[in-house]
Fold Oxygen-dependent coproporphyrinogen-III oxidase.
Amino acid sequence: MNFAQVKDYLVDLQNRIVTGLEQVDGQSFRRDTWDRPEGGGGTSCVIEEGNVLERGGVNFSHVFGKGLPASATAARPELAGRAFEAAGVSLVLHPRNPYAPTVHMNVRFFAATKEGAEPVWWFGGGMDLTPYYGFEEDAVHFHQACKDALQPSGEEYYPRFKKWCDEYFYLKHRKEPRGIGGVFFDDLNQPDFATCFNLTRSVGDHFLAAYVPILQKRRDLPYGERERDFQAYRRGRYVEFNLVWDRGTLFGLQSGGRTESILMSLPPVVKWRYDWSPAAGSPEAKLYTDFLTGRDWLPLG
Amino acid sequence: MNFAQVKDYLVDLQNRIVTGLEQVDGQSFRRDTWDRPEGGGGTSCVIEEGNVLERGGVNFSHVFGKGLPASATAARPELAGRAFEAAGVSLVLHPRNPYAPTVHMNVRFFAATKEGAEPVWWFGGGMDLTPYYGFEEDAVHFHQACKDALQPSGEEYYPRFKKWCDEYFYLKHRKEPRGIGGVFFDDLNQPDFATCFNLTRSVGDHFLAAYVPILQKRRDLPYGERERDFQAYRRGRYVEFNLVWDRGTLFGLQSGGRTESILMSLPPVVKWRYDWSPAAGSPEAKLYTDFLTGRDWLPLG
């Protein structure tokens, strides 16, 4: 377990991703460095009204403290009171073009230490894609990149983390997946630190290859008010998921995290309307019937 | 304790409020009646793209069941497994004009029964106002109507329920009140059923007088893109409160309530932007400095 090594990787990952996205967009991200009064801090990189990205944030944070609050360890009461350290990179990008999907990626590391005891640590992370208008080839490309990221660690990871992603990014109050999925994992600490770190690093390292080709392909497709309107409506689901179900968002907001960094994930313009659904057979209906179905995008086995 | 009497009152209240609002707006509400598979149902009255109201809903629901789930009674474990019955009217109105405030009102009744035991019951409710551009006279008018509603039940209620409202409608992650407050109460079952019912009824009955004069005064004020933009930004706070902190919304969504009726409270068009605050001294800044301060709008005592 080497925390400094993980932190260095995360700082570098954030820089590489922001630089890569700036090359695509042509507009620079704003960079805000902030301190956490209780220990640690972070850097939030934000783009708004870019050429391609309507709103997006790539956030790095590294927080630590002396006594882990009981609320943070409900599932592991034996960790209460331990010193802790957590670091991660988290991003959400909302392109302007309704044919380009929203994307989310996160890699994170947590460690709880106590003198005279073995440190307890785990990795978590993943990435998932949320289209407004679905393209089968985009979904396949994204899942292939997820699989490529995990394959070096072992055959078993992609199917397991793909399923975990479908289960996690699910709006129970809508009985609806958030998007076409990807991969998600948490509590990863087996078989050893090096294997877990390599796997997590590979997920972060594959992000640009997973997303940028899709963004490039869709960024300049012509669209009109109808598509923008549907995008704004569907973005409401993103808000609902993040504020009602996402554990990271809720924990951050309820535990005094930096609100503006946490809510960078929310879309720039959102609409709600009552009991609306798209006309059967329309391109909008196709999103529900063909894409928000938890299907397998890659041939299994 | 007479449940039928409460239910009749609530059905009538919904009708009176919807009729009153239709007279103001000139457009009819859509009325949807729905059943709850586990027992009960409701009527949702919705307006969208009205002449004055951009989006609004007035919801009546009456639900019952045989065994109260433990999750619903965390604070009162002795009620688990009892038969229960709950009814309420809940409304949120989002006017189009940014000078007209958003308003919320709710009155509700809950009863848990068991053969051979005294029924356990309580009332809850209140109303609160959320301006985008504040007007002192509107805040005073609204609070005066709240006080008028409670005064017949006793001097002590308005100050107590005003404070409770300020505490409840508070965005902890923003350190910011949702609006200029009003009144809020819950668990009301003293001194007796008749007193509690009268008080709750008076709150419901005062809603139109509390809000309609404000709406009429502001509905036709001239505004431009700047004011609409600030309104959309501030509406984001409404979404954040309702999805992150509001117990009724969260419980409804997480317990299989009717999603479209619960989320009628969300605004039609919402914007999020990073780390934004209004220029010092601007009309937008005045909202924060002069109105979102938990102040007393009526002379005390």
About this structure: The two ends of chain A are 33 Å apart (CA to CA). The longest helix of chain A spans residues 3-25.
